[in-house]
Every structure is written in structure tokens, then in C-alpha cells.
What we know:
The protein is an all-beta fold and 193 residues long. Helices cover 0% and strands 54% of the residues.
Amino acid sequence: HILYGQEKVIIGGEKLIVTGTDYLEVYQEHDFDSPVNVILKFGEGYLVGANNGLYYYNEEGAGVDTIFKENLLVSSLVEDTGGLWVGTFGDGLWRFDGERWQRRYLLRDTGIFDFVNTLSYNYPFLWVGTPSGIFRYNGGSWNQLFVSDSSEVYEVNCILQRMFKTYIGTEQGLFVYANDSLTAVPEFKDMQI
């Protein structure tokens, strides 16, 4: 994962590396005893999701000074208008409102969000991609999305939201959600995206 700042580049891999924009000079390195899975600009610093927790990195020289949540394999992060969503691989979907953590789930299947591959937010919708399909949250209710009248689920790997369309990459191909309809893109059928 790579994020560009004004004069720095934040790179996640086996460790967190802060370099100049020319990549010639390494300013700082932080080892979490675990690979870095995701980085999100957050406040005056960055949230770093690793295999062993969620950390806060303050770029003003304080380094990694806060563990937001320990012992979670963090797979994805996204900020919404009122808080932070954290997707994990095995420990569920979490929301932090600035004061408390709350695990989110569906009453009909409390384990459906145990494994979250990707998250995306664009007001007013949170999109959640899991091995069990595509879910969309509007702030009040959850919907699982299906192609036409099918009940087939797809393992979701990535989500890209645009103004009027949302693109969803899966193990079985590329899908587009537009005009309240989910459709497969034929040119990408059976292609892992």
C-alpha cells in the first residue's frame, strides 16, 4: 500500500517506511512484527492496519504512538462522516465513532462479516466486500446485492466508486452497480479482479 503526502511517501509492506517523494532517502521505518495491509490518512497522521492490530502513526515525529485495537488482522479501513470502519480477516466488521468500538453484523447471519476483504465509502453508502458477497449500508439498513434474480454470491476483492457507478472486482469477474442494478461485465467473465 502506498500513500503520497506533500513531501513524504508512506509505504506499507513488511514494515512501514516513510521516504521522500523521490524514494531516495528513507526518513523512518517502523516494524510491527507483522506485514502492513492497509494505510489510511487519519487526522494529523495515518492509521496502519497490520496482521496484529490497528496502529496510529503520527508523522510529526512521534512515530507509532497508539494502538487503536490489538490482536486484529486488519484487512481494510475507511472513514465515513461520523467515524471509522475497520474490516478484519476473521474478527468481523468494526466501527469506531471516536469514543467506542462496536462490532457490526446482520441479525440473520451474525458471522457474515467475519471476513472482510474490502471497504469503500462514498456518502451515503458504505460498501463491504466479503467472501460471501457484496453488501451496501445506507446508515440505517443493510442490503446484499445480487445479479438480476440470481442468488449467486461472489467473493469480492475490491470496490471502486464513481459518481454514478460502482465497480466491483471479484474472483469471478468484474461487476458494475448502476441504476439500482448489479450486472456482470461480459469481457471480464471468469477473470479474477
